[in-house]
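Researcher: Quick sanity check before group meeting.
Model: Go ahead. Protein one:
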Amino acid sequence: MVFTNITTSSSADVALKIDPPQSVDRDAQLALNDTAIEYAEKYPYSTSTATIVEQGLSGVVANVSDRLNSASDLEDTVRLLLSNSTVYAAMVKIAIDSEKATDESGIYNAVLRHVSDKPKTFFQAKLLQYVLNAKHITVDGTDVKWQVLPELVAENGIPITSGDVEPAVDRLLDIVYERGALYYYLDRYIQNGDIDAIEFTPSLKEKMLDRLVTLNLNIDPEKFGAGAYDEYFALAYHEARTGGTTTDDPIDLVYSRGGQSTWDFAVDRFESVEKQGISKNNILAAGALDYIYYIGEIMRVFDVANVLVLRWASGLLDIPDGTTASALYRFHKRRDERSTPEERAMLYKRVLNKGEGQVLSRMSVNSDFTTLWDQLIAEVMQYVYKTERKAYWNNWYNSGVSNARIYQLTRDLQYNLSDHMTGMAHLQVTEDYNHLQEAIDIINSEDVRNYFGGRRQSLWNTIERICSEEFGSAPNTETIKTLAVEGNTIFQWIANFNENLVTSSQFEKLLDAVEAWVLAKETIEGSPQKRSPKPLPSAAPPPRYDSGGGFIYDYESVSGNDNLAGSTVGDDEFDRW
């Protein structure tokens, strides 16, 4: 029996109306029915609509529905899921209960984030199951090649339009049959630790898989465990890093006719590792530039590498012939071809308004970036603060938790960075990142680390020791690394942002990144907290009324400058920073 939406005469029922997409595949309809049944058990329709009515939010939800219906770039799968009022009502209830959203933008954004997570995953799994059953294909959980299928579905999705579902699944199955086992064994090879896991970026892994497919490997599990195939994976790694007719480093274009730079601006994260007028690549390039600024300049990695080259050239650093000596010599010989510190400083200043670099008379400094960035950071912290406060107080008058301002500032930054990360800047950033990686490779080499303290000496300890010896002070490498990595996460949020496609996991990742970035920033600057870290009161403060009849709240504050990162966040919005 097909599951149908429960009908009531409440105002909430009238508000929960989303138009379904046209020409929906039959299997997609069946998967939608299964999803509705699943959520009806967790969030009964009557309970969800009662929450909407009791909160007096029927009119707000009706506006959200109008906005969803008019959204031209709403994904078909999301539109289909929300067209079922049981699923839609459940998402609204989650928005109200979990995020304390009570305004149109807050509910709209929360609904889109939550429906794009578990409901969409459940729906796609059911849709895939119906197609596989029709094809009489049984997924063998013990066969390693099938373990990549959930990841492929999550990355590529399955369309819901009639006639498109089966071909899309066929394409996924082709990948499973051709390279599913290789995905599994490549991950195991990486886990073995012969090569540092941070080297295996997504693009490099894809290049390795392309090479491994051409080798037509038939891997025996027992032989793999004994290391029989390590040489093939090492060869694929080497060719992915250095082979082919393209290069990541623009400086190599000087010596390679017809070559081109192919770096996708994905930075080393030090882990175990389009709309009109908006350029995602420009924004990602700006994020990479910000990363270079913190790691290369603030942490002084460029300076440390230059010190090592100078010591080695002067005979003060004893490095035996080999890989490290070759790297030092190459770094030395290329010094006149790389961007100078002044040229790098000019780029930081022009694009991000960072540092004290001097720009040319015709260059325009992106002074708006600083304001927009500070406002985004402040708004995210305000959102975190208000969400925590409202979760603590079940009834906080006029609290207005909303992420609308975060979304608006993100859009503003998209346009800002798209406009200013232009011209030769892409090649400059790519070259500077490769220059940075060369410097890190030298500092992190076994020869250098052994010289400055033995095998247990880390990259960060080595940087701190050399800076202390040469420059009289050691940088806080851990904190600077946080600024670089978490800052890059924020730039990735800006680059990939689409209001109608944001998931809860993406939004939570932004919140976590901003909180970590703020803590690191305060540590670097040595600034005290703007507010006293007093505990939350046991109840909301008693309201008083302004002349217009609106609620006003009084909060205890400390003296001093209460302006948050140059934003418009005021005293009544934060008790602490």
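Researcher: Fine. The other one?
Model: Protein two, sequence then structure:
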Amino acid sequence: MNTKTLLFALLSLTFLQCKNNAITNTFKLHENDPFKNTIVPSQTFTIDSKQDNVVEGENGTVLVCPKGCFINTKGEIVEDNVTIELSEALSIEDMLLSNLTTSSEGKQLETDGMIYFNATSKGEQLGINEDNPIHIEIPTKEKKAGMMAYKGTRDEKGNMNWIEPKALDNYLVTVDIHSLDFLPPGFETEVDKGMPYKNHKTATQDLTDSLFYQLAVYKGDSRIIDNIDTQYIEPYKNKSKQVIKDEYTPDSYQEHSTEESVHESSTPETTCGIDPASIKVIKSEKYQNTFIATREFEARLKIIFKTCNKAVLETYLNNLNLNLYEVDNLAANTLGESNHYYENFVNFAKQQLTKVQQADKYAELLKGYYGKQLLKVKSELEMEQEKLMKVLKKKNLEAQKVAEDYKKLLWKREKYRMETYGFNWSETGWINIDNGTLPKSWESKVTEGIYVDNGQEFDRVYCYYVFTSIKSLYRLNTTNNIEFYAVNYDQGKEMLMPKDGTAILISIGYKGQTPSIDIKEFDLNLPINYHLTLATSTIEQVKEAIKPFEKYAQENKINKDLEFMAKFYQEEQRQKELIQETEFMRKLWTAAFPCCAGPQAAATLEY
């Protein structure tokens, strides 16, 4: 009677071959077996025995074959390629068609799955090195207590008998620790929702991990420093202007005078949750040979995040030498029976999972490592945050300098116009500029309406009055790229201009880097109400169109003003990105720390 090795298991077992001199040929079935046409088919795999291998069957059975686990009939470690034969009978239908009855010496057994496994090399039957066994995991919906592994024998008529029961070893099997999901529930979903982000069109695992680790040193709104205004107007007709010591205040160049806004650095409190730096520490090669690098701990970590109790995580990290079920009990006690997640850890403990082989050795090596490494990781993350803040500060200083330079240009432009109109501006001290008894060649006029009919088609649009008689320039304001006005929209739309003659109205719009332009000449004696339509042009054509006005003083050159406008537009886009990033980080904060109140992190920006 031929025999074969057949394993009956619940979830996982360690396969131990007999002594080296007892290796016998292993067969799946006899050639005259009446069930040979319906028995579960075999799957074959070829592996390199000189390295660690993991073989997974079609129905989820996993064979973990460490380097050096196979031996030949001489007791020598096999270093050639090995052929693995695997059959899985995990359903009742497969068992019936294969006549895999579940009886042992005439007594019925309760089964939860059967497999056939064999290993050969160059046609030679192999055995398993009992000092370096393979590990087998058989999938099951629910693990049951008391299950054992039986060796099966099959006679020529296809009858099965299950003998030599062996208690299942609940040793945990590690996987590549970097393949595990050590993120809070829902965190990856929030990252996906935030795409695209910076230069990332989609979320990679490295990006998602990096964003999570950043939260270890996240400082709330302090990521945005100094909101630099990019909208400036000539102050003369601005009713909100203020003059101090014969100079306009900074707010005088804005449409509405506002108090200086201060962005407080709101630092969210992280003590109520799991520190992302802790996760960065444990998701490393150092913990590869502990239960941290197992699917079982991955499942526990998902619940640990929900508890928001770092003491639970530390319970596992401080007891790597214990069986996992023992640590599960300690975690449950850490939470207490009144905690909502207490039963989760009690149920984990009931699984009676033990430890990774040689766990004690690695636990001893890791003593003191976590605390030191946590400080190191936090320091590294803080340094990265400091680098980011330095970049932000530098860009803000650059933007602030552009703003100050432009205000100086507006001051020169207004001063030039006023002096050209016939006033000694410096002696008037900016206050009584409208007073005077000499005949005036200029007057204050209301611009009834300047419209760029297709303005919404463009990213940005600018309109300029050019008073050729005095070689003066005036940039109009807008809130929608369509309607343009002088000074404040709600303060009369008045501006100073010559009484008679003609002037030029120039509008330039940009879609990306492509410019469009329209130019109209208008009579200063007629009501100022004009419509323009921008036509696609080129940079060269625009330069040619405004060339006649480039002989004006520096402050009255259209091209010079457009240079400032381009810089302000870039700053606006940068600020929008920072605002979006801040909103994005707040959502990630909520996902990472579900128990934290977080009103500081969720505060509304004062823009």
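Researcher: One line on it for the slide.
Model: The radius of gyration is 39 Å.
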